[in-house]
From TrEMBL, chains A, B:
Subunit structure: Homodimer.
Keywords: Aminoacyl-tRNA synthetase, ATP-binding, Cytoplasm, Ligase, Nucleotide-binding, Protein biosynthesis
GO MF: proline-tRNA ligase activity
Lineage: Bacteria, Bacillati, Actinomycetota, Actinomycetes, Kitasatosporales
Protein name in UniProt: Proline--tRNA ligase
Catalytic activity: tRNA(Pro) + L-proline + ATP = L-prolyl-tRNA(Pro) + AMP + diphosphate
């Protein structure tokens, strides 16, 4: 008799599989307020590892962390016209504080360009103060009409970088550097998610930006997820907040700026990229727990052995957890670790202790075989590297096999509807074609250059639009 | 001619000295909303180091991080009567979201006991789920009538731990463990701040707690600062949220809980404990930058040498920064580093390069003398240890020399007014005496046992009240 599946199968109902996985792997719960979420310890542990890896890359660019207030005076938001138009429908507003109605309502930050520019205007005096490179890790709030855990939540956690530069070129190059050295490097080498790097069409650009670089990942159902964006803000916010510097030539010039962010939405991307019908699969370089050592039953020799192996693996630099909760049936614990996607399980029972072997189960490459216990610390790092590469390869192969080159809007819609992406010359599509795609819920995810690189601008000849359905 | 002091001297005006230091050392700025702050990169770097050290200690207790929503339905707050009474005057309320008035207003969390209990009620089924040990790093909002940067701000950053246990004893012991192993250990061994560990009088207890443990530090002006608290919540929140577990005996019992927090207020405590008329002094174990290597002038040999020394110190495990901004006068940079309180400055000019020596300036122990460059990597760790010990000793000596044993309320007020603390038997003071002290703005900081340890309870015979003025 076949066992009932732990999760709704992906092929049956992908959105429901996603919700099932988040619930059963104990990643998150829905919050009490509309569209909010509670990130449970295992989900938060994954986010903490994302933060560590991203933060190191951000700091390597010379950027330093700071913290700006959650509440932004409503008047700040209105200073940059496109920006307020983009965010006004999504704002949460504090009208009362300390038991009294406030004179000016405070907006809960949806993003921090405005309040940060207010301070940049105070801190930046001369060209010696530039570039000014700041980042903050924070919560932000955007009222969501169709919330979905991790993907679109009213409150989410993110990092938002904000920088000011003396020239257009310096700002542009820095936005590109973040795109490549922070986001692309992290997503490829840690998340093991293949992404297409490109620029947004004018319709999809960040409200207030002159150019937005993006990374688009293809999920298991062929839909796209925007994984991170890096914006050139030009002088739009500098003009609105009069952020100027004394240039070497004695002029008081407006600064050129960038902003860039990636959020807890990446956890959703991780699930939808690497998850399967048995649960999550976490890339080893990201995994808070790379190996779990399980005691099959409550036996003193077994318990001593799992602790000994746990210590040996930890000493070998492997993030290891020992599961000695023998009051819960072994089978249920094994299924739980599979659901959570821990790359390697080392299972120990009395016979294994006697034989000095362990049963080694691999969540990503698959398979289960006995190995000598003493060989584990040297064996595992290589297996984890293989798993890491395998996930990236599977992600890349999915994107390549489900992307087709087309010439007409009808073909593009057809490809997207079938669960994939289409590449169509931007010259053949244009803003009018983009509007027609929207009628079928298909959008331009990004524009790439003819050779697949990130184009100079929207108008660069030969640009190709990558289009698909998106989260 | 004496130079004008960089800061208002402490002896002249301590609060103004504090504000001056925060501004000139670029730790923080006032935010635009009432009582908010902008934490600048240097101040945030100090907070990040606090987070790292605290987080490691929190995790060592078996506690894991999670994240709960910023917005709490107003109805949750009202379920625990004392809790809502304590926090109602301080709340910020969101009444509008996504362009519409909300059906139920949302409170911006002032602390998270209520929303966390809602989820504990879902997650806790049986005794096997206990203890449940969670912590979150988050921003919270409490409307402040008399705000002061880092000490009392409308929004602040903190960690809040929340745990649930099967028995009163287990909860009590865990609250005590956090008090000692996380907070006391961190404050003594990292912050180098001497604190008195005790319990709060009933009047000073957290709203909703049955017992509050506290750590009180004496600031440079003899006033007290509450540096962290660990609460036993009894079954108060469990009752309000019906948080029950199936006990081994088959009964559905209410859990016993704790909560505990420490915040960015500790940055204020750091400044007021260790700062002097020349600026901040950061304990080496905390310092984001332990040593700075300064190029005195723009000379190729000098610049090469500072980078070489910087690399050697970094390789020796010392958190090192190289200051080669020779377009700013050397004297100004030296004053800046002194203001920022970096423990060690290594200054290099052309003559030093020729002689293979560096001028070594010590911010904490004081003094400036030439040392052989090659000796630096081996020399500095020992000096930094000395500095760390010296700061703790100075902090302890201040508290000891400014604390007096008294028998009357008048003597206690006199001691507090003179800038110190008084110790008075709690049996002689009691709640009535406490109310009389309050008329002179003097409060009971904590109760300690006769032998100086943390007492079992408020009613333990022989308890001594430590009283003083406080921030």
């Amino acid at each position: 008799m076949a066992k009932a599946p732990v999760l709704t199968p992906q092929a049956e109902d992908f959105p429901r599989w996603y919700q099932d996985l988040i619930s059963k792997a104990e990643l998150a719960d829905n919050g009490p307020g509309r569209g909010t979420m509670v990130i449970r310890p295992y989900g938060y542990g994954i986010w903490e590892r994302m933060q560590q890896e991203m933060d190191a890359r951000i700091k390597a660019t010379g950027t330093r962390n700071a913290y700006f207030p959650l509440f932004i005076p409503q008047s700040y938001l209105t200073r940059e016209a496109e920006h307020v138009e983009g965010f006004a429908p999504e704002l949460a507003v504090v009208t009362h504080g300390g038991g009294k109605q406030l004179e000016e309502p405070l907006v809960v930050r949806p993003t921090s360009e405005t309040i940060i520019n207010e301070y940049f205007s105070k801190w930046i005096q001369s060209y010696r103060d530039l570039p000014l490179l700041l980042n903050q890790w924070a919560n932000v709030v955007r009222w969501e009409m169709r919330p979905r855990v991790f993907l679109r939540t009213t409150e989410f956690l993110w990092q938002e970088g904000h920088t000011a530069h003396a020239t257009y070129e310096d700002a542009r190059d820095f936005a590109a550097r973040i795109h490549h050295e922070v986001y692309a490097d992290f997503m490829e080498n840690v998340l093991a998610i293949d992404t297409v790097l490109g620029i947004k069409s004018p319709a999809e650009r960040f409200a207030g930006a002159i150019n937005t670089r993006t990374l688009e990942g293809m999920m298991g159902d062929g839909k796209a997820l925007q994984m991170g964006t890096s914006h050139e803000l030009g002088q739009n916010f500098a003009r609105a907040f009069d952020t100027r510097f004394l240039a070497a030539d004695g002029e008081r010039d407006l600064v050129w700026q960038t902003s860039w962010g990636a959020s807890t939405r990446m956890v959703g991307g991780l699930i939808m990229s690497h998850g399967d019908d048995n649960g999550l699969r976490v890339p080893p370089r990201l995994a808070p727990t790379q190996a779990v050592v399980l005691a099959i039953k409550d036996d003193p020799a077994v318990l001593a052995k799992v602790r000994e192996i746990g210590a040996a693996l930890t000493a070998a630099g492997i993030r290891t957890e020992v599961d000695d909760r023998t009051d819960t049936p072994f089978g249920r614990r094994a299924v739980d670790w599979e659901l959570k996607g821990v790359p390697v399980r080392v299972e120990i029972g009395p016979r294994d202790v006697a034989a000095d072997t362990a049963m080694l189960a691999r969540r990503i490459a698959g398979g289960k075989e006995p190995v000598a216990i003493e060989a584990l610390p040297k064996l595992l790092p290589g297996l984890l590297d293989e798993d890491q590469e395998l996930l990236l390869r599977q992600s890349r192969e999915r994107r390549e096999s489900r992307t087709s080159d087309v010439r007409t809007i009808e073909e593009a819609v057809e490809a997207a509807t079938a669960g994939g992406w289409a590449r169509i010359p931007w010259a053949d599509l244009g803003p009018e074609g983009e509007a027609r795609l929207a009628q079928d819920a298909v959008s331009v995810r990004c524009l790439v250059a003819e050779d697949g690189s990130v184009p100079e601008s929207v108008d660069t000849p030969g640009n190709i639009a990558v289009v698909g359905r998106a989260y």
